[in-house]
Amino acid sequence: MRFLHTADWHIGKKLHGYNLLEDQLHAFNQIIQLAKKEAVDGIIIAGDLYDRSVPSVDAVEVFNQMIIELNLEEKLPVFAISGNHDSSIRLETGGPWFKQSDFYLHTRLEQAFQPIEVGDTQLFLLPYFEPIAARLYFENDEIRTIEKAMEFVTAEIKKNFKSGMAHVLVSHFFAAGSAKSDSETKLTVGGLDTVPLDLLRDFDYVALGHLHNKDALISDQIRYSGSPLKFSLSERKQEKGVWIVDISEQSCQLEFHRIQPLREIKELQGTFQELAKQEFYESIDRKDFMFIQLTDRSVIPNMMYQLRKVYPNILGVERVYGRENDQKGLTKDVNMKQLSPLELSRQFFEEMTEEELTSQQEQWLNESLDSVQQKERGK
Amino acid sequence: MRFLHTADWHIGKKLHGYNLLEDQLHAFNQIIQLAKKEAVDGIIIAGDLYDRSVPSVDAVEVFNQMIIELNLEEKLPVFAISGNHDSSIRLETGGPWFKQSDFYLHTRLEQAFQPIEVGDTQLFLLPYFEPIAARLYFENDEIRTIEKAMEFVTAEIKKNFKSGMAHVLVSHFFAAGSAKSDSETKLTVGGLDTVPLDLLRDFDYVALGHLHNKDALISDQIRYSGSPLKFSLSERKQEKGVWIVDISEQSCQLEFHRIQPLREIKELQGTFQELAKQEFYESIDRKDFMFIQLTDRSVIPNMMYQLRKVYPNILGVERVYGRENDQKGLTKDVNMKQLSPLELSRQFFEEMTEEELTSQQEQWLNESLDSVQQKERGK
């Protein structure tokens, strides 16, 4: 069997407030083209189809379109599971009908034990689940962690192994030894959420979702695909794309294919003057997401406002060498006791962000200060 | 063609805070039994499948189960549309797959113009829509009301009429001359939302949803099915059920079939003492929803608390003859100016409801009074 392995689409996700639906459609179009060009037997999506349990109407519309195109128009078999970001019950709507056209969407633990056979390959689609689901399914009170649960789950799955076939597990968890980045939601604390690799050794390939970095785990046959897009600043150096996997009982061959983003995350380093210079900014693609690293140390009035006029998609501004204490502008110059809490907060905000409070922000600040003062009075 | 006509399921709706999911499943089971017994060719559901655009996970789970049973297990064709309570985009998830098993779920205006043919009948499934959808579809700026929109929509539908066949319209709106009750959401004001019956005369049957009273409109071939359950106190005298319709080009025969509720809405009239008497309350089915009409006029301490101990599902208590001014208990006895606003409000609440404030209610009251006082101070 030859398949495409992707995961963590997070449809509807925003990056620092920027809507990514167009970027997600742009990546999707490359995935579908690649699947056709590589003549795969199907597409594996290893969880986190949506970014939230109740996705926005826009996100639902975009995802519905994608799946219609993938499965009904291009007739590509789809093997998908729900991830920790999805609501399994909401996502399962339509599931029993999808099968008619080889779109398998597993959202419940017990569905993992019904393998789907494609040629000489058995696919086991194990959705994200909580230990309690396994505790109830196996009627065993000792199952309190994902590690323990996976002992039972993999044993149960192996009962359905047919010999002479390749065995593929599709799942969504944190595999031992992987490296996390910022944009993955932590499942639990204290390592209870970690699945040891030894439990996964009997599969010919494990198609994982959850971590957004394809290199989070380096193992021949246990792989994260990573997300098709960069979903946080901390992912800016990661290579994004999908795996094309050729699997048989004897061998497993992997090839990574990059996805070109609609808008890249770029780092811009320089002085404010350099970055605001027309010759410079006209030489680069300004629709990209910019992470700006200013080398100046002086206070720059209205800095964000001016930068945003030039760079519409700024993710953040960092002062590489910190900021100098420009005595004139700073609050310590005046007697702080003479300032009202509102005025003091306003000045602090402006010094830290180099932006003025919007009227909405000023209102929030006012309300918060009022509420603190009342509590003080109430004592 | 022989079909069952129902509408306004409002899965997830609550009645005065009481969860109705079990009542809705109970009604659904009768609908499915009736459909089988009457050997219908399909089930029409004329909108408002859910009660809210974002239904709860429980509601989604129950509705998914129902539709699986109806269409996949019992193999009944389903002809459904979205209503004003549904989110058309959320509801359309899975739609293109549903057709494979004769489950037609129309959520967009333009889908009304693709008739579904069953034997000698053409079904036109017209979902609830806003005038702007018709204005854009017909590219005509004069379409500002549902009445105007329906002129265009019915003309467009009629272009697809095949002669020699019966023509059925499934839709969800307020038809001229209908009588509204409390639990239907008003669409617009000033009659702009009303569809004249003349526009509907060319259909052999119009299966409507939106109004919960099957008798809201008395017309041979234009009918509301009403909701399968009573969804408000004002619906307590309505007969609830579904239509079984036999339709051909020559004739249209209707038969109404009642649905037995799991919990009926009952009116109980008497004195507090009578209603609290064991011989009385043990003679009736106390799981029903009770609307209690007290004939006493005196103040009864802890009345609601005592009544709820006997009747778990109280929708409301009415004092048929009002209440006497029991001078001892009432606020006018004391000098109101001596009471704090909080104390005054607390006494007023207790006199009106015959219940004490809960600690949560007292907290809300306190916060509201605080906020009023601050605004006063701010002037």
Automatic annotation (TrEMBL), chains A, B:
Residue spans of biased composition, Polar residues class: 360-372
Domain Calcineurin-like phosphoesterase, residue spans: 1-213
Start and end residues of each Nuclease SbcCD subunit D C-terminal domain: 260-353
SUPFAM superfamilies linked: Metallo-dependent phosphatases
Transmembrane segments: none
Gene3D superfamilies: 3.60.21.10
InterPro entries per UniProt: Calcineurin-like_PHP, DNA_Repair-Maintenance_Comp, Metallo-depent_PP-like, Mre11_N, SbcD, SbcD_C
CDD domains: MPP_Mre11_N
Pfam families, sorted: Metallophos, SbcD_C
Superkingdom as given in the UniProt entry: Bacteria
Cleavable signal peptide: none
Segments for region (Disordered): 360-379
UniProt keywords, alphabetically: DNA recombination, DNA replication, Endonuclease, Exonuclease, Hydrolase, Nuclease
Job of this protein: SbcCD cleaves DNA hairpin structures. These structures can inhibit DNA replication and are intermediates in certain DNA recombination reactions. The complex acts as a 3'->5' double strand exonuclease that can open hairpins. It also has a 5' single-strand endonuclease activity.
Assembly information from the UniProt record: Heterodimer of SbcC and SbcD.
UniProt name for this protein: Nuclease SbcCD subunit D
Taxonomic path: Bacteria, Bacillati, Bacillota, Bacilli, Lactobacillales
